[in-house]
Amino acid sequence: MTSYQLIAASVASLITMACSSAMAQGLEPSGEPPAVKGWKLETVADGLPQPWGMAWLADGRMLVTGKKGSLHLVSGKQVTNVPVEGLPSLFTEGQGGLLDIAIHPADKGPNPRVYMTMASGTMDANRTVLVQGVFDGRRVHGIKTLFTASPSKSGGEHFGSRIVFLKDGTLLMSIGDGGNPPQRVGNMLAREQAQNLGSDNGAILRLTADGKPAPGNPLAGQQGALPELWSIGHRNIQGLTVDPQGRVWASEHGPRGGDEINLIEGGKNYGWPLQSYGADYRSREPIGVKVVPGMVQPLVAWVPSPAPSGLAWYTGKGFPQWQGSLFSGGLASKDIRRVAFDAQGKVVKQERLEIGKRVRDVRQGPDGQLYALTDEAQGSLLRIVPQ
Ligand SMILES: [Ca+2]
Q1: Of 56, 73, 276, 283, which is least surrounded by CB within 10 A?
Q2: Which fold has domain 3-35+49-305?
Q3: Is 197 left (phi over 0), alpha (psi -120 to 50) or beta?
Q4: Are 323 and 343 in contact (CB under 8 A)?
Q5: Which residues have C-beta within 8 Å of that of residue 187, sequence separation ≥ 6?
Q6: Who's near 159: CB < 8 A, 6+ residues apart?
Q7: What distances in angstroms separate CA 320 from CA 25, 142, 323, one per listed residue?
Q8: Active site (annotated) includes residue 234
Q9: 176-209, pLDDT tens digit by residue?
Q10: Host H or E run for residue 371
Q11: Domain map (residue ranges) of the chain
């Protein structure tokens, strides 16, 4: 070690000790929050086959992905199928399929670039990919594969797959850890990829709009680190949103218990699988420990697991009392959870909107209203309005 490295190491260890004494207790997990009233559901559209993600076109119409590989245009209450030409081989087993969707935020004209995430490959070797095409009003054509996550993994679990554009024109994409034991990648459990800087799995990536590693990514200088990594130590993020201040929020599936809400900062390690509030599905043994110095604590850890998917930051006028809150969809809990923060970003309140159906995605529309997709063979697009 050089003298600089020695000093850096001792400073790091002092910081670690300070953090560890302050954080040794970790977080008190949250149970099911109380139900809230004063709202009702409106059905915007029906008959969406296992919808997964939604995105608004500049003219207010929407595109909704169907997990089995379909794409749908929602115009008012009307749903029409949108052919997607040239999609690579789709893997639809388990949690795989055609997943999230985003429109390039600069494309306000009639031929916007459409970004979609999907699982591709076979049961023995599959991975999450990012594709881009052009919507011409009738179909999506010119599909290109912009990014392919590596390494490949087996089985039908944990593709992550939310995408969100940042104000600087880059995009964040979540990649799952690859699956529960006994799934393995190489000589390690698949989930251990979340701590491997040489793997895209179990991470959030920051890419250019062309799918290249974005310049200035925080881990890029570290030996063996992939240049696209933004944050690591994630199990399976299926909710990702940016608030008006530019802060990035994520909801993450934990194992048995310990689903999380995190504030995402570039370069940070969010702990999985060394730090968690959950237990292994099979053995029921705790996974990791609740506090690992140097790893980011979640803002919320839910036990039991709502199985969160879809996340929105609310700024709308319909519910002034909800402004500045996150809304997190729950698959298992069949609800949408509101998480309220104070000015310092501390969680001050939680409550649940009982939907009664598995919720796959939650977004705030350009009209300031909250929308949700239900995870059903014939799913619905719902809108939450004041009662
Ligand atoms: Ca975590």
Answers
A1: 283
A2: Neuraminidase (2.120.10)
A3: alpha
A4: no
A5: none
A6: 95, 96, 99, 117, 119, 128, 175, 176, 236
A7: 35, 42, 5
A8: no
A9: 999 999 999 999 999 999 999 999 999 999 999 9
A10: strand 370-374
A11: 3-35+49-305
Strand-pairing partners, residue 299, are none
Ligand 1 center from residue 261 Cα (angstroms): 8
What distance in angstroms lies between residue 273's CA and the mean position of ligand 1's atoms? 8
pLDDT digits (tens, 9 = 90+) for 73-102: 999 999 999 999 999 999 999 999 999 999
* CB-count exposure of residue 151 (10 Å: 0-12, 13-18, 19+): middle
Residue 172 and residue 8: Cα distance in Å, rounded?
Answer: 30
Q: Give me ligand 1 centre to Cα 260, in Å.
A: 7
How crowded is the C-beta side of 297, counted as CA atoms within 13 Å? 19
**Active-site residue (options: 72, 158, 234, 253):** 158
Instruction: For residue 242, give both structure tokens.
Output: 């940016």
Distance 319 CA to ligand 1 centre (A): 30
pLDDT tens digit sequence for 301-343: 999 999 999 999 999 999 999 999 999 999 999 999 999 999 8
Please name which of 186, 191, 135, 125 lies closest in space to residue 160, comparing C-alpha atoms: 191
* 379-386/335-341 β-pairing: unpaired
Stated pTM of the model: 0.93
**34/216 Cα distance (integer angstroms):** 43
Q: How far is the CA of 301 from the centre of ligand 1 (A)?
A: 9
Cα 149 to ligand 1 centre (Å): 21
> Could you tell me the CA-to-CA distances from 235 to 145, 200, 250, 316 in Å, in that order?
24, 12, 11, 31
Give the distance (Å) from ligand 1 centre to CA of residue 296: 7
